[in-house]
C-alpha cells in the first residue's frame, strides 16, 4: 500500500492529437503514477521523427485517437513503480520505442535486439501491465504511442524501454539517440560494418540516412555515395561525410548501374533508408560481387515484394535487414552516448531547429516541408 500513498497523479501540459492530421492541442492531462515495472519521467527535451508524422497522419493504418505522440526524448526519472530496482528518481534517461526485457530468447541472444515482450507495437495505446492508459482528461483515457508518448511534460514508460545514461550528457543533444540517429548509425557500424578505406552507398538522405553516412565516416570509408531525389541535400550531406551524390532523376539507366560504373564493379556496402522497394532492390544490386553487403533499414509499404535474380546472391552478395541499428536499448545505448561525449560521434549537425513546447506544431511544419532534420522541442521555457 505504501506505493499508493507515495505516488499520486500529476496534472501537466501534454500535446494531444485529437484527430488524424489535425494540429496538436496542449491540454492539461492527468498522468497516473507508475505501476509495476513502470517509470514516470519528466521530459525535458523531445524531438519529432517521421514515425510520429506517419501515425499522426494515419493514412492506411488503424487510427488510434486521441493520442499523445513522441518517441525521441531525454528526461529525468520522477518516480518508479513496484519491482523497479535499476532506476531511481533523478536518473537521466532516454525512453525508447522498443525495449529490452533482458529475459526473453531475443534479449538472451547475443545477436538479436527484437525483444519479445517490448518490441515496438504501434497499434497498442495502453500499458502492458494492466491494459490501461496512464493519461486521461477528466477521466477520459488518452492513448499512448509506442510506449513512450514524450509530447507530455511527464510520461510513464515500461522500465525495459528506459535507458539510463551518463548524467553529464546534454539531454538536448543526446535525446536524438532515442530513435532515428541510432537506427542509421547502428545500421552502418553494427550491421554493414564497412572497413577503413571502403566504398559505401547510402540511399535516402533524411535523418536516418545521414546517420548511416555518419557511421560510414566514423568507420573511415573513403567514398560515401549519397543517393537522393532532392539535389538540395548535397551541401548538407557533405557535413556527414558524403563525398559523391547521385540523383536517380539525372540518369536514364537504373541507379545500380550508375553506381557500379562509378565504382568499377559496385560498392563494398550499401544502406537503404527510404523504404521504397525499388531503392531496396537498387541498394542490393549495387554492391560488389564477392563481398558486397546491403543493409535494409527503411520500412516498406505493406504490399512490397523484393524481386532480384538469385544469381545476385550466388555471386556472393549479402542482403541483410536491421531494426533500431541492432542496438539493445538498455545495454548498448549508454555506450553510444559515451561515443558522443568522447567526440567520436557528432550530433549537433543533425539539429537544425528548436521550438518551445507551446509551438510544437511548428516542428510538424518544418518536417512536412522537408526543412528540418531534427527539431528539438523544449518542454521548459
Ligand atoms: Zn526481451
Ligand atoms: Zn523515430
From TrEMBL:
Name the UniProt record assigns to this protein: Uncharacterized protein
